[in-house]
Amino acid sequence: MPKTSTEHDIARRVQIVAAAARCFARGGFAATTIPDIVRDAGLSTGSIYHYFNSKEQLFLAVVTEYVAVYDEAFFTELQRQGPPLARLEAALLHLQEELAAQSPTRARIALELWSRAHDAPDLHAWLAEARERRIAAVVGLLSELCAAGELSSAEVADGAARLMALADGLVVQRACADFAALPGMPLAAGLRGLLGSRTS
Predict the structure, then answer these.
(1) What angle do CA 11, 13, 14 make, to 5 degrees?
(2) Does 176 score more than 80 pLDDT?
């Protein structure tokens, strides 16, 4: 059976995004051109512009597809039933495992996202929304710990910012070094630093 138009479009879009990801990871956003992506994808320039209006739009598609460290499983762990501390530990463990398994290509694209977000409005908006979502999720859980007497109200927002800053720093480290060889569990250590002896 021949592919339907929708199936063809999906497959072609996946092909273009994968080629763009390779190019952006190799040369960075600024140095990568549409002709570079055309050559890598083995398609025509018209094919690229049929699906994406600009290099910025294509890069955002790459980011959406490849920069998924804070994936739905991370938020699912935070929202499960059960003790809030156990849920936070499970979410941070999942995040740590995702970072360790992240390919160099994905790690470099994450770094490119942060380096370009200051002057690309669409990227800035995407990154700001993603950051607000994860901060809000962690603040919500730390608020449960505050209600249970495990944290002070002053520590809630500060603690969420500290944990996410540590996680983001590990994303940068993954882009620059062999994160898989990193000993220990730095996110768990960060949680212990926030809560002291109350963590398991």
Answers:
(1) 65
(2) no
Distance linking the first and last C-alpha atoms of the chain: 56
User: Which tokens belong to 20?
Assistant: 């763009």
- pLDDT of 184 reads 62
d(CA 102, CA 117): 21
Closest CA to 106 of 17, 188, 15, 31: 17
Average pLDDT rounded to a whole number, residues 74-98: 84
Q: Are 124 and 107 in contact (CB under 8 A)?
A: no
Retrieve residue 191's tokens: 């949680």
Return the biggest CA–CA distance within the chain: 63
Residue type, 112: E
Mean pLDDT within 137-158:
87
Under the phi-then-psi rule, with left for phi > 0, alpha for psi from -120 to 50, and beta for the rest, what region is 32?
beta
